[in-house]
Design brief:
This protein has about 290 residues and is of the alpha/beta class. Helices cover about 35% and strands about 25% of the residues. The protein has 2 domains: about 100 residues, 2-Layer Sandwich (Nucleotidyltransferase, domain 5); about 150 residues, Nucleotidyltransferase, domain 5 (2-Layer Sandwich). The protein has 9 helices and 13 strands. A hairpin with a 3-residue loop joins strand 9 and strand 10. The two termini are about 25 Å apart. The model has no long low-confidence stretch (mean pLDDT about 90). Bound molecules: zinc ion.
Length: about 290
Amino acid sequence: MVFFCVDIGGTNTLIGMGNGDFEVKKKLSSGRFLETPLETLDSMLDQEGYSRSDVDSTAVAVAGPMDKDKRVFYPPNIDTESVDLSILGKMGELRLVNDCTSAALGEYHYGEHDSQHMVYVTVSSGVGAGMISDGDVVSGSNGNFAEVGHMTVGDRLACGCGGQGHWEAYCSGNNLPSMASELFGVEAEDAREIFDRAESGDPEAKKVIEKFRSVNSRAVSEITTLYNPDLIVFGGAVSINHEQYLPDPENVDSVNRAPRIEKCSLGEESVIHGLRAVCNDKMYPD
Ligand SMILES: [Zn+2]
C-alpha cells in the first residue's frame, strides 16, 4: 500500500509518496496541478508500478481557508474562487489539513526541535500559524485554527481581508512593499528589494525593517499571552531567507514567559512532512 501527500501552496504544489519510507517526488505549479489532479497522481502511480487500488490514503494541505465538510477550499493566491477537492477521494481515504497545522506537525515530528507546546508561524506571501499542544494538534471547529495573520497588532494599515491593522498587512511578503510606501514613503518592487536595501545600509529601508520587526515582536507577544508555547518556529519564505530578522525572545512582552524562537528545520518541506505524519497516523485531523 502507498499514500500520497499533496501540499497545494499559493504558487507551487509538492507531491510526496510513501509506503513506510517517504519521498517528495514532484513539484509543479498549483495552477497546473489543479487542472488535472487525478491524472497527475495516476501517472505517478504508473511510474512506480502501482494502481489506484494500492492507495491507502491521500492527505492534502491547502494554502487558504477551507470547508472540510464540503471538501472545498478557497485559494487566495490562485486565479479561481473555490476548488472542489472531493475528486481526490478516489485515491484512498482523503484527509484535508490546514497548511500551517500541517507544517506544525511536520516540524514537530520530523524537525530538529525539542518542544511539547509549539506554535509554528509562517511569514511568506501571507502570515498564518499552527499549534501542537502536549503532542496534539489544535485544529479549530472547521479546520481553520490560528488565522494569526488577521490579529490586530498595528493601527491603520488596510488588510486584504477588509480589516485594519492586521499582522499580515504589515509583515507578509506580499504586503511589505505597501507598508513601506504608506508609512515611510519607500517605493520598492518587492519585499526582497527592501531587505536588500536595508542590508546595504539604506536608512529608509532600515526603518521599514525596524517596523517589520517591532510588529512581529508584538504579534509574538500576543501569541505568547494567548497560547503559552515553549517554542515558536518560524517558517515561510520571508523567515527562511531573512532569519537574521526573526523576533528576539528578549522583545516579548507578555504575562507569560517568553518562548524560544527557532527557524524551521525542514525549509519548504515542513507542510508535506506534516502530511506524512497524518498518513502515518501520528495525528488524525478531525
Ligand atoms: Zn486581515
